[in-house]
């Protein structure tokens, strides 16, 4: 399995079915914090449901769809990034993230998302990468800004999360914009 260094003590690696116990422990540590805007904590409540979530996403990855990657700090899973949508035929995908409080503020999500966006454009020839974020998720919006994505609009009250209607901001970057912004 590959690993990409994000910092001296942090790595990005594929998040696999066999990580289910570790994934559940991670969800338990950050359940309320992560669950404010992300649905995983509500879907991975015990070992079987954690395993099923990872298995379902592994099947999607095998069919060139959704992919999950974990962020480990000093060997402990503390968050992750993913492609919640990946459509190679259309050249469009979406990147997303989650993180438990202990790892916040270190730039790990920004670094990990940069890896995913680079791979989408340079490894897979994607044309567009999107970032969907709840309007109240200021930390995630800041990541989109740091990555140089453009805010394209807001879908008002389009997403029901934990019984509350949330609005979603859409941010995106196109391949030619990404390559122009990257150092040679």
Automatic annotation (TrEMBL):
InterPro entries, A to Z: Acyl_CoA_acyltransferase, GNAT_dom, Ribosomal_N-acetyltransferase
Coiled coil location: none
Gene3D superfamilies recorded: 3.40.630.30
Residue intervals of the N-acetyltransferase domain: 15-177
Keywords: Transferase
SUPFAM superfamilies noted in UniProt: Acyl-CoA N-acyltransferases (Nat) (SSF55729)
Pfam families: Acetyltransf_3 (PF13302)
PROSITE patterns: GNAT
Gene Ontology CC entries for this record: cytoplasm
GO MF annotation terms: protein N-terminal-serine acetyltransferase activity; protein-N-terminal-alanine acetyltransferase activity
Protein name in UniProt: GNAT family N-acetyltransferase
Source organism per UniProt: Streptomyces subrutilus
């Amino acid at each position: 399995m590959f690993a990409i260094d994000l910092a001296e003590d942090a790595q990005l690696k594929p998040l696999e079915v066999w990580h289910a116990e570790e994934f559940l422990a991670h969800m338990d540590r950050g359940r309320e914090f992560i669950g404010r805007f992300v649905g995983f904590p509500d879907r991975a409540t015990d070992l079987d449901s954690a395993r099923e979530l990872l298995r379902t996403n592994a099947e999607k990855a095998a069919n060139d769809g959704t992919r999950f990657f974990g962020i480990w700090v000093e060997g402990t899973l503390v968050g992750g990034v993913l492609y919640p949508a990946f459509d190679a035929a259309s050249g469009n995908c979406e990147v997303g993230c989650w993180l438990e409080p202990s790892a916040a503020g270190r730039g790990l999500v920004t670094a990990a998302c940069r890896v995913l966006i680079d791979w989408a454009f340079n490894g897979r020839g994607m044309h567009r990468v999107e970032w969907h974020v709840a309007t109240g998720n200021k930390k995630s919006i800041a990541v989109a800004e740091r990555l140089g994505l453009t805010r394209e609009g807001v879908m008002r009250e389009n997403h029901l999360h934990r019984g509350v209607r949330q609005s979603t901001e859409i941010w995106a970057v196109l391949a030619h914009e990404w390559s122009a912004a990257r150092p040679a």
